[in-house]
Amino acid sequence: VAATVAVGLGAIKRGLASPNGLATACKPLCELALAPTSRIELGGHELIGRTPMETADLLHRRSGLFGERLLARVRGDLREFQRNIRPGTAIGCGRAIEELSPRPRGARSGTAQQAIDRIRRDLRDFSRRNRLDRVVVINVASTEPLIRRQGLPDRWAALDRQLGKRSGAAPPASSLYAIAAIQESMPYINFTPSLGCDVPAIRELAEARGTPIMGSDGKTGETLLRSVLAPMFRARDLRVLSWTGHNILGNRDGRILAIPANKAAKLSNKEQLLASILGYRPHTHTGIDFVESLDDWKTAWDHVHFEGFLGTKMNVQFIWQACDSILAAPLVIDLARLADYHASRGGRGVMTHLACFFKAPMGVSEHSFAKQVDALHGYVQDALRR
Ligand SMILES: NC(=O)c1ccc[n+]([C@@H]2O[C@H](COP(=O)([O-])OP(=O)(O)OC[C@H]3O[C@@H](n4cnc5c(N)ncnc54)[C@H](O)[C@@H]3O)[C@@H](O)[C@H]2O)c1
């Protein structure tokens, strides 16, 4: 996702591609005074040694994305991105992610507090070297195993004390990046199902520091379609008896999601949405399988069995075939611009107006895509009136 964001921003900046797929390029969002995409600089943290250029080349060769000429023209942008990448932390990420790192022990050594201090230094350094007005931190790292947040203290003061200890429950890396960003007053967005900032103690910290936050888990494919279709069944009183789905995908995200604990984090987001929209729990099952040959292309097949007038049972089936990173990258750019805009106007706390971008939007119980988009447009109208 990160490499595709870099290719996309480079291509748009050089006039090699239209901003197709960016919600912030269309009305009404484009009417806000958003940062131009040409002014965005990229940086990040990584565990592996592969450069964004190598990842982009791989996406081109294996998945047929981008063109060779386009890749050649954005090479400089990808090198610039690479210069801003620092070694990340794998604390609390589980074995599969730790083992991505060529120095798995190093990536999880030290205390959580030491990792946070290092990330904060990297973020400040990135901002200073590039003379940035603002940094927005977006988590697009691999999905961590499902973590029970009950193990973590609810209050920030208690969690803060725990971060410096070598024993006891430490929050996972996604939460350490979140804490570092919030403490640097940099808006934080969690595009993954990992825990990130969705912990009472971290929300308390964000509130106290006045830093905008949002998550979790980008709504890009099957779940997007579910959040469009499910309100129709409800509005027409067509009772959904079962909603089963099967996903096959082949990229590294797919490899990590094939591990049961990591998969559980993704599935819990996908399934909660249906019950919340329908108002009851139909039989559901969602499968995610890793099929290496598919590379970045994902297929989701959904079968919805429903009951209509006079108890007649019918079904609808759909197949969604799409390229994962091509769906996600424009959302990441939109989120960066919208979070920057919100912070520039003194916005703070959970950015609930961004719910339409997420499978499990923090602080929002409304899952219907149309209603979430209405809420975002309402925010825009309010902002334009002020
Ligand atoms: N359509 C989509 O692609 C989509 C939609 C919703 C959510 N997501 C989520 O976005 C994330 C990224 O997806 P992707 O396809 O780019 O995955 P990917 O595996 O290609 O890239 C993830 C990168 O994160 C790095 N990483 C893992 N843990 C890290 C850590 N603790 N610190 C720093 N770097 C770390 C990995 O080395 C890897 O290079 C996944 O969690 C995925 O579930 C993607």
Structure commentary:
With 386 residues, this protein is α/β, with parallel strands linked by helices. Helix content is 45%, strand content 14%. A hairpin with a 5-residue loop joins β8 and β9 (313-323). The chain has helices at residues 2-13, 52-63, 68-83, 95-98, 104-107, 112-129, 156-163, 173-183, 200-209, 222-235, 252-257, 260-278, 324-344, 369-385; strands at residues 44-46, 85-87, 137-139, 188-190, 213-214, 239-249, 283-290, 297-307, 313-323. It has 14 helices and nine strands. It binds nicotinamide-adenine-dinucleotide. The site of nicotinamide-adenine-dinucleotide has 29 residues, from β1, α11 and α13.
Keywords:
386 residues; 4-stranded mixed β-sheet; 3-stranded parallel β-sheet; binds nicotinamide-adenine-dinucleotide
